[in-house]
Amino acid sequence: MVVQGTRGRLADSFAAARKEGRSVLVGYLPAGYPTVDGAIAAMRAMVEAGVDVVEVGLPYSDPTMDGPVIQDAADAALRGGVSTADVLRTVEAVADTGAPTLVMTYWNPVERHGVERFAADLAAAGGAGVITPDLPPEEAGPWLDAAGAHGLDPVFLVAPSSTDERIRLVTSITGGFVYAASLMGVTGARQSVGAAAEGLVERVRAVTDLPVAVGLGVRDGGQAATVAAFADGVIVGSALVAALLEAERAGTGREAGLAAIRVLAADLAAGVRAAPAPAAATS
Amino acid sequence: MSARSAGSTGTVVPPALAATPGAGDWASVPTELGHFGRFGGRFVPEALMAALDELTAAYAEAIADPAFVAELDGLLASYAGRPTPVTEARRLTEHIGGARLLLKREDLAHTGSHKINNVLGQCLLTKRMGKTRVIAETGAGQHGVATATACALLGLECVVYMGEEDTRRQALNVARMRLLGAEVVPVASGSRTLKDAINEALRDWVATVERTHYCIGSVMGPHPFPMLVRDFQRIIGVEAREQVLALTGKLPDAVVACVGGGSNAMGIFHRFIPDTSVALIGCEAGGDGLATGRHAAAIAGGSSGVLHGMRSYFLQDDDGQTKVSHSISAGLDYPGIGPEHAWLHDTGRATYRVVDDTAAMDALALVARTEGILVAIESAHAFAGAFEVARELGPEATILVNCSGRGDKDVDTAARWFDLLDAPADGEAG
């Protein structure tokens, strides 16, 4: 008897948001920062404040796709001794809120844990899927088998530089939603979301009915509203992580960090509700 | 014998890029997706896939274009100083009391190491792709210096990422790069060494890929880099094979090279791969010793994993977090190895042994005193390994050692190691 993950929960979230005429808000925080329990509290706080879907980041020694904010938090988490087992425990605690919970991870920790074992453990923890930004479709065979067997959605990314052919390839194996990188670059809050994002979402919609969520660069409710006007989901990471980092650095205590997370998450949640639902999403 | 005459087919394809005759299965790697057996591949964000496809296509076109080939061949001869000689190390051979030692003198190539072979190829390719900016990572600084050099020659903007720790260990090379017009960016994240410089270069590349080429310095990274760098470096073995044949009338019994990422080793190994009588031996950096855990021996002390866009052997913990490597040699201080080496190891066609800091430094001193050649600490690892092999094989055998770089950059490190300075050195600044 194979324990099944909560695949399908992502689709439910996107369908429910669509009915409400809004986009889904996806929030990212790394496990283990400032501590394992502190991160769990922050993730639960952002769900209470309106985040629909949680990405639990697996801190990694060589985060080549992350900007300084997520690097700093991941470094601190690793110095604090966070392990893959801690990440799974975090997923369990967050999935308990009812929010679909994904792991966002570089590929090596999964491979090292054992691809099949990682899928089984994540499913047992109540995880909904995994985002694997450095696992291209060409190398994803074993992972797709394991994710399929354990009821997990495998989420893959497209980028502004993706050809239409590659978008077709990526979307053909993706489950849950398509992660569209808004710009060419690493993670980090920016003044404006890349202009390429809207065009990319259109190109993805041309080949799939899967929901499309846009990430990279979103930092506040205003930007969330802008993105929500054309995307099914808005993904926010660095801005949330920065809120925790700033509170830690200011030494204002864990409660201040949680408060900052709640304020930002509420602002973002209002943002995804401010825009009219993306027209192309209703099919 | 000149390397330029090594291509005996009469075509314009130069020895650097010509297919290996009779290579059989060995020539079939990598596959179209960049696999060497179970190693290699492309583990990068989707944002970089288009650039890697573009590079793969541009490279295939370039090596089929006689004009590109002629230009590279011309630069290798008139600018880089190829072919580099093979030197018979008589006094060293006598001292070791084993096999006859022949040295392939990449230390005599322009900029002082084999790195120039690869960067000339990649920078010409950069211009061909219409890109104007080149980024590179560097550990010891040799690849950074070579890249800065090629960029100066070809009029390209150059940015070199270097771990902060390495900028201190190799301050002279930082100054050299800046003199050559490159911007050197010290990297303060992670372990502040080569692996973190690669991380930072990858972050730059994903944001600037439209106008930037990432000139990777070793046979590593996502496909097509391990293949492309190997092809640009294989001139070393192509020349050396001819030179050894001319000198001794037979193939060497063993070819020995140091291995960090492994470009000088792949460069000298590749032409010999079909010659199955020739033992191919790579020397990994053993740091304080394999047993201490403070080393950079990815094959001897690592396990299969994925890092920097490739599947290969890496130093990592049970959770797949990269372990920090240790070596007195900044150029070998990397927790991984190129995927083709991983494959050669798995197939048994090459073997890898470990040389620790002490053995390497002893070799450096011995080569200096017996041959008047001050080799790079990286290359000294190859010599120390070759001494072991020489004693194992005995006086009838011939060993070709890749002297991959010169040691001028390492004088400060060696002076401290051997306590050669009269006045107390500024030990805190090292």
From TrEMBL, chain B:
InterPro entries: Trp_synth_b_CS, Trp_synth_beta, Trp_synth_beta/beta-like, TrpB-like_PALP, TrpB-like_PALP_sf. It catalyses: (1S,2R)-1-C-(indol-3-yl)glycerol 3-phosphate + L-serine = D-glyceraldehyde 3-phosphate + L-tryptophan + H2O. SUPFAM superfamilies: Tryptophan synthase beta subunit-like PLP-dependent enzymes (SSF53686). The modification N6-(pyridoxal phosphate)lysine is found at K115. Its cofactor is pyridoxal 5'-phosphate. Pfam families: PALP. GO terms for molecular function: tryptophan synthase activity. One of its GO terms (cellular component) is cytoplasm. Residues 79-405 form the Tryptophan synthase beta chain-like PALP domain. Pathway: Amino-acid biosynthesis; L-tryptophan biosynthesis; L-tryptophan from chorismate: step 5/5. Its EC number is 4.2.1.20. Keywords: Amino-acid biosynthesis, Aromatic amino acid biosynthesis, Lyase, Pyridoxal phosphate, Tryptophan biosynthesis. The beta subunit is responsible for the synthesis of L-tryptophan from indole and L-serine. Tetramer of two alpha and two beta chains. Belongs to the TrpB family. This is Tryptophan synthase beta chain.
